[in-house]
Amino acid sequence: MYMYLFALVGSLLARSAYARCYDPSPAFPPPDFSRDSEGLKWTLAHIEKSLKQTVSDEIYAASSYSIEITSSKETLWSSHHTARDRNESRIGTKVVTSNSVYRIASITKTFTTLGILQQHAAGNLSLDDPIQKYIAELQGPESGNIPWKDITLRTLASQLSGIPREC
């Protein structure tokens, strides 16, 4: 139910704000990054060094990751790390590479929250708006244990709404 409500709120907000979203203009073009940029090379080298140093700590011995930074035209940088202490009884890849497959779980919440934050910054909504404002089915007298009137876009976005997984 929670994921359904979150997706519904995101969908409703996106539709209502669509007319207010603007494409970049010549005055504010999107950034043009290139792998050959000296500043970008330095930054990415620093990130790589920091990542290697971090995962060398014993507390991260069971951690694997894949990171890719892209522009609209190309991959600018990628880094992959395979855990040193891997549970061999678990299914999955033995070595993390650019072709490794990950479960994305609830990553769509991140995109929905980003859309909500952009619309808040543009003044099109308030993070403190109750979700009842956007979901007609939740308006009216409350029933059950969930106080819908107290649940805001902010509490949904921060995953602190208290809505149980299956309600």
Description:
The protein has one domain (2-19, 34-157). By secondary structure, it is mostly helical. It is flat, with a radius of gyration of 21 Å. It starts with a helix and ends in a 10-residue tail after the last helix. 32% of the residues lie in helices and 8% in strands. The protein is built from 4 helices and 2 strands; from the N terminus they run ααββαα. Mean pLDDT is 80; it is low at 1-9 and 11-20. It has a two-stranded antiparallel ribbon with strand order 1-2.
Question: Which class of secondary structure composition applies to the elements?
Answer: mainly alpha
Number of helices: 4
Approximate helicity band: 25-40%
Task: List the uncertain runs.
Answer: 1-9, 11-20
Shape: flat
Q: What does the radius of gyration come to?
A: 21 Å
Major beta-sheet overview = 2 strands, antiparallel
Give the rounded overall mean pLDDT. Answer: 80
H/E series: HHEEHH
Taking the alpha carbons of the first and last residues, their distance comes to 6 Å
Strand elements, count: 2
Number of domains: 1
The largest sheet has its strands arranged as 1-2
